[in-house]
Design goal:
Blueprint: H1 2-13, E1 22-24, H2 51-60, E2 65-69, E3 83-87, E4 92-94, E5 99-102, H3 106-110, E6 120-124, E7 135-138, E8 143-145, E9 147-151, E10 157-161, E11 166-168, E12 171-177, E13 184-185, E14 188-190, E15 199-205, E16 209-210, E17 213-215, E18 218-219, E19 222-225, E20 241-243, E21 252-253, E22 258-259, E23 265-266, E24 268-273, E25 279-281, E26 284-285, E27 301-306, E28 309-314, E29 317-318, E30 323-324, E31 333-334, E32 336-341, E33 347-353, E34 356-357, E35 373-375, E36 384-390, E37 393-395, E38 402-404, E39 411-414, E40 417-419, E41 426-428, E42 461-467, E43 471-479, E44 485-493, E45 506-514, E46 520-528, E47 537-544, E48 549-550, E49 557-558, E50 560-561, H4 577-588, H5 604-616
Parallel strand pairs: 1-2, 2-5, 3-6, 4-7, 5-8, 6-9, 7-10, 8-11, 10-12, 11-14, 12-15, 13-16, 14-17, 15-18, 15-19, 17-20, 18-21, 19-24, 20-25, 21-26, 24-27, 25-28, 26-29, 27-32, 28-33, 29-34, 32-35, 33-36, 34-37, 35-38, 36-39, 37-40, 38-41, 42-50
Antiparallel strand pairs: 22-23, 30-31, 42-43, 43-46, 44-45, 44-47, 47-48, 47-49
Length: 619
């Protein structure tokens, strides 16, 4: 009650300075004050200050201004736990720089009436107002805090010009950066402080919105989308960042998508289309905030990149993307963690690195996911170029781990952990598989002259795979195009997939080989085997170093376990007198290494075993 009285006295006396807040104390969309229509002219004859009057007075009063709320509960309508402002006479337009609108101040007046944090929302009662933003900002350095749900309008808040605006602690529908035909830069949606995170239905970053940041929020979906129809020079939203490298910057993006009228699911968690230099980093997409379980989705992709340039998708957890169609699509199953495609123009430059796909936040446990990464143009008139997948874990999906569609070229797949997928770890579609259906293993061909996704790059054939607990010795041959350099990558997995070809749970390392005039290149490498266990298999991929085109996984080959040579006591690779001397010295020193039979004692039987091994030599 004290706050209400103080607010009314300030407003009634007309003596407020630019540093004092304007206090909104009615839900009604009225405007009856006159004069210069500044703060000092409030209130009008009705003795009340509406939000429209507060915005008008702030716009007309020089300097930074703040709007607070103290709306009595006896005015509340439709809902009982928070106040709904009536919007009846067009958008609320903020045109003065450094304006703060703090809807959360209502809680200081009536208490925290809503445990979800929404204290003041907006209800659109303007005829034909659907699709139009409730609040439009044409200013810089503004702050919007604590806005609740906005009903029967378009975006809750839209930035049409200016920049460096902040949006924190809101629990509302959509925040839109839409400055067409101008630009807006430096806007921040969310923050690293938990109190700054927003709970939003969506974020839309459109033509001319550059160098903006979205971090620390819970959002249904994020769209970074330009258009060829926008003004030349700002058609591509550029340099925008969704998330960041720290847990505090992470956005949790889930509950996205919807069913179309025919029952086909549609929508994505993050959509990057007709944009440049977009970074999507460190987010949890399709899963709970702790990354332990999926959230039901109706969308077809966790992240979709289309017709874009230089997109980086790094360090995200993307799982749980699986939806069953209804109506005419009943029984059909959809979903891809990352979908890279092209429709109206070529898609050029996508880096997909260090993401967890199909797993929980630990990377060890499955979360139901339909498919991993799909690189496939929507039409043969366009293509996708320069895609690199590196350091990702892609596991447990119901289809392929990575699927590259025809005629896509130049998809580099390097150093990933790809395992436990129902179909292939990597599936390159042949020309007759351009529709995106899984094709199964594509056999090697002499000279590697066939066509298809990634040129249907031939895979290596392993001849030997052994390990002794510390080192893996793997050999084989790559047959491909003559006189070219290739990077052969070696992997180990607990088991092969049903095709008999490997996936690659553990990346062991690589070797660069050059084929001869017949297109043949043998290889033999020794690699760290500390993560390999008995019964595992080895497999390999090949990447053309000039085109960055990676093959499918080659046939799996079981590791053979090498037994150590007892007579080579000093492990220098040669059995000679020095091994005898070293063994005797160690035996006299009671060194446990001389317990060759492993019974916990060094005695005559160990000496006898050494002598027998020495006389027999090492294989």
């Amino acid at each position: 009650m004290l706050i209400r009285t103080t607010a009314c006295l300030i407003l009634a006396c007309g003596a407020a300075s630019a540093q004092d807040p304007i206090v909104v104390n009615t839900l009604h969309d009225t405007d009856d004050f006159a004069g210069a229509r500044q703060m000092t002219d409030l209130p009008g004859p009705d003795g009340k200050v509406s939000f429209r009057e507060a915005v008008t007075a702030s716009n007309n009063t020089p300097g930074p201004n703040t709007i607070h709320f103290a709306i009595p509960q006896d005015e509340w309508w439709l809902v009982s736990d928070y106040a709904l402002l009536r919007l009846e006479d067009g958008v609320f337009l903020i045109s003065d720089d450094a304006t703060t609108v703090d809807f959360s101040t209502q809680a200081a007046f009536t208490g925290d009436t809503n445990p979800n944090g929404r204290e003041v929302g907006i209800y659109g009662l303007q005829p034909n107002g659907w699709g139009i933003p409730a609040i439009i900002i044409q200013a810089s350095d503004c702050l919007i805090r604590g806005l609740g749900t906005v009903h029967l309008r378009g975006a809750a808040v839209a930035v049409w010009s200016g920049g460096n605006n902040r949006f924190v602690g809101n629990h509302t529908t959509t925040i839109e950066l839409n400055p067409y035909p101008g630009t807006t830069t430096g806007n921040i949606i969310g923050g690293t402080d938990p109190a700054d995170g927003n709970d939003l239905g969506g974020v839309q970053i459109l033509c001319g919105a550059n160098d903006n940041v979205v971090l620390g929020n819970r959002i249904n979906s994020v769209s970074v989308t330009g258009s060829s129809y926008c003004t030349d020079g700002n058609r591509y939203p550029t340099g925008n960042r969704i998330g960041g490298p720290t847990p505090e910057e992470r956005n949790v993006i889930n509950d996205f998508g919807s069913y179309g009228s025919e029952g086909f699911p549609r929508g994505q968690g993050v959509r990057v289309e007709y944009a440049r230099d977009t970074l999507v980093e460190g987010n949890y997409i399709g899963v709970t905030a702790d990354g332990a379980d999926r959230v039901f989705q109706r969308g077809t992709a966790g992240i979709r990149v289309a017709d874009a340039f230089d997109t980086t998708i790094r360090g995200n957890l993307i799982s749980g993307v699986r939806v069953v169609g209804v109506n005419h699509a009943a029984g059909q199953v959809f979903g891809t963690a990352i979908d890279v495609t092209a429709l109206n123009t070529d898609n050029d430059g996508v880096i997909i690195e260090n993401n967890l796909i199909g797993t929980d936040a630990t990377g060890e446990n499955p979360i139901t996911t339909r498919a991993g990464v799909t690189v496939q143009p929507t039409t043969f008139l366009r293509t996708v170029r320069n895609v690199r997948l590196a350091g990702n874990t892609i596991a447990f999906t119901e289809l392929d781990g990575v699927r590259v569609g025809n005629p896509v070229q130049g998809v580099e797949i390097s150093g990933n952990s790809i395992h436990s997928n129902t179909l292939l770890g990597i599936d390159l579609l042949p020309p007759n598989g351009g529709g995106g259906s899984p094709s199964g293993v594509t056999p090697n061909d002499p000279g590697d002259s066939d066509n298809g996704a990634n040129g249907l790059q031939n895979f290596p054939i392993l001849a030997g795979a052994g390990f002794d607990g510390a080192t893996a010795a793997i050999s084989g041959t790559l047959g491909s195009r003559p006189n070219r350099a290739y990077r052969v990558e070696l992997f180990a997995s607990p088991e092969a997939d049903p095709s008999g070809h490997g996936e690659g749970r553990v990346y062991l390392g690589s070797a660069v080989v050059t084929t001869d005039s017949a297109g043949e290149a043998p290889f033999a490498v020794d690699l760290d085997a500390s993560e390999i266990e008995d019964g595992w298999i080895a497999t390999a991929t090949a990447t053309d170093t000039s085109t960055a085109e990676t093959s499918e996984f080659g046939p799996a080959l079981s590791f053979s376990v090498s037994q150590p040579c007892l007579a080579d006591f000093n492990a220098d690779g040669t059995v000679n007198f020095f091994d005898i001397a070293d063994f005797v010295d160690a035996f006299n020193a009671l060194d446990p290494a001389t317990d060759l039979d492993g019974n916990g004692q060094s005695n005559f039987f160990d000496v006898a075993a050494f002598i027998d091994a020495y006389n027999a030599g090492c294989p």
